[in-house]
Specification:
226 residues; Rossmann fold; alpha/beta; 6-stranded parallel β-sheet; 45% helix
């Protein structure tokens, strides 16, 4: 922490994809199914785009994701992709696919033991964010799950601001792997912990974070030092 003393926060706010949930363990098969269905329905006639293109878009709003993943696709293809993505994600979560990052659940439980309130702030759809938490057994550890899909926020800055207001949180740490997480934390006056273990974004994604971690248990160590 470069000698800087951190204070114990009231809450820790987590991104979901690339932070708690190792999203590629779910999305690789979802991605292939989705484009196969689009072709079968006559909505998209090109080869399946590289999965890396989709993974690099994690953290964005869905409408922005499809502009980058299939810029040659029609509006109808993009809207159908929204539906298929959610359906296939939930089906495959229910089937046991996808995994949390190592020691994610243990880390969350330790933070709860220290009296920390836990939240998720994600640009994903409400059903998806809640589905991951439920199927991976961490739903009951959170004091709130906030998603752009539920609150119709244009940016994660707005989503985190809403969360802080709703729960009257004065001090919190923001934990995430994308520039949108750094921006959301900084714009709301929070300390930002950047997850350097996620490989979905560019190296510059976490510029501006107060500290970088290589694994989730380091958050508990930061708390112990606070």
């Amino acid at each position: 922490m470069a000698g800087e003393k951190w204070t114990k926060p009231e809450a820790v706010i987590f991104d979901m994809d690339g932070t708690l949930f190792e999203t590629d363990t779910l999305l690789v098969s979802v991605h292939e199914r989705l484009f196969q269905t689009l072709r079968e329905e006559g909505l998209y006639n090109q080869p399946t785009p590289p999965i890396e293109r989709l993974l690099s878009c994690l953290g964005m709003l869905l409408e922005d994701i499809w502009r980058k993943v299939m810029p040659d696709g029609s509006d109808a293809a993009h809207r159908r992709a929204d539906e298929l993505m959610l359906r296939y994600e939930l089906e495959q979560l229910e089937a046991g696919e996808g995994r949390l990052y190592p020691q994610a659940e243990e880390m969350l439980k330790k933070l709860k033991e220290h009296g920390i309130k836990l939240f998720v702030a994600s640009n994903g759809l409400e059903e998806y964010v809640r589905g991951v938490a439920r199927y991976k057994g961490i739903y009951d550890l959170f004091d709130g799950l906030y998603s752009a899909g539920e609150y119709q926020t244009a940016t994660k800055v707005d989503l985190v601001a809403q969360l802080l207001k709703d729960h009257q949180i004065a001090t919190a740490w923001m934990v995430g792997d994308r520039s949108s997480d750094v921006e959301a934390g900084k714009a709301n006056g929070l300390k930002v912990i950047g997850c350097a273990y996620a490989s979905y974004g560019r190296d510059t994604e976490l510029a501006g974070a107060d500290v970088l971690i290589a694994k989730l248990p380091e958050i508990v160590e930061l708390l112990a030092e606070a």
